[in-house]
Structures are given as structure tokens and as C-alpha cells.
Amino acid sequence: MATQVPTSRLLRDNALTITQALPNNTNNTTSYIDIGSGPFNPEEITVEISVPAIPGHTTANNLQIQLWTSATTSGAAVTSPLIECDVLGVTSSGSVATTFRFKLPPGTKRYIAFHSIATTDDCSAATMTITLLV
């Protein structure tokens, strides 16, 4: 019997990629990505969030990026359990480029969006990229 070795090679699909300017002392939400209603489990989908270096992120506060989910294209709410990616600001130089990868949690609904919160810093000069990897 042959041994099956899982592969970690994942492909990017431009149709499942969104970019969003980061907020300026406020918050914003991306447009929705439709993950479909096929016969699959959401926890099989890998999400990659890429945040570039942000020179203006100079307080020691987090830029928070939360995964939101909804059955329709309105009324999204945070997932349970909460999936949140935090980028810590650096006083002298701003935050460094960061990439997050995670699987969608069980129970994720058909539409997903990402809510960014930057309560004290102007992060609007940077754009994050979110990609579903298949």
C-alpha cells in the first residue's frame, strides 16, 4: 500500500482575492467573499492575510483584523470562535510586514468579510491583501 503524503502547496485564485485600504483612526470592513455552498467543510479553506509594513503605525497599539461571516451579503458578525489577527505598532519605526494564515473555523457561513480596527494610528497609507488559498 502506498503512503500518502499531504502537500502544503496552495494556489491563489484572483477571483477569491480582495484588497482593502487600512483604516485611519477608525475601522472599516472589506467586501464579501462568497465561499460557496458546495459539499465541503469551511475548515478546509485556508485564508492568507498580507499586511505590508506601516510607517504610520507608531503607537504600541494593535491593528486588529477580524473575520466576519454571514449567510447573506449583509449583517455580518464576528465568527465564534473569534478569529483575530493583530499587528503591533512599533514606536520608532512603525509596524513590520506581517502575513497570517489560518483555516476557517467550523460553522463559517457562506459569505466572509474582514473588519479592520485601527483606533489610534493612521494606517490608511497601506493596503492589506486577503486571499483564499485552494
Descriptive notes:
With 134 residues, the chain is an all-beta fold. It has strands at 12-21, 27-29, 33-34, 46-51, 62-70, 77-78, 84-88, 98-103, 111-117, 127-133. Strands 2, 3, 5, 6, 7 and 9 form a 6-stranded antiparallel β-sheet that branches. It has a 4-stranded antiparallel β-sheet with strand order 1-10-4-8, with no helix packed on it. Strand 5 and strand 6 form a beta hairpin. It is globular, with a radius of gyration of 16 Å. The protein starts with 11 loop residues before the first strand and ends with a strand. 24% of the residues are buried.
Strand % is 35-45%
Helix content: under 10%
Structural class: mainly beta
Number of strands: 10
Note the total helix count. 0
Mean pLDDT over the full residue set: 87
Which stretches are low in confidence, meaning pLDDT under 50 for 5 or more residues running? none
Instruction: Give the C-alpha Rg.
Output: 16 Å
Morphology = globular
C-alpha termini separation: 27 Å
Please provide the ordered H/E string of secondary-structure elements.
EEEEEEEEEE
- Major sheet: size, sense and barrel closure? 6 strands, antiparallel
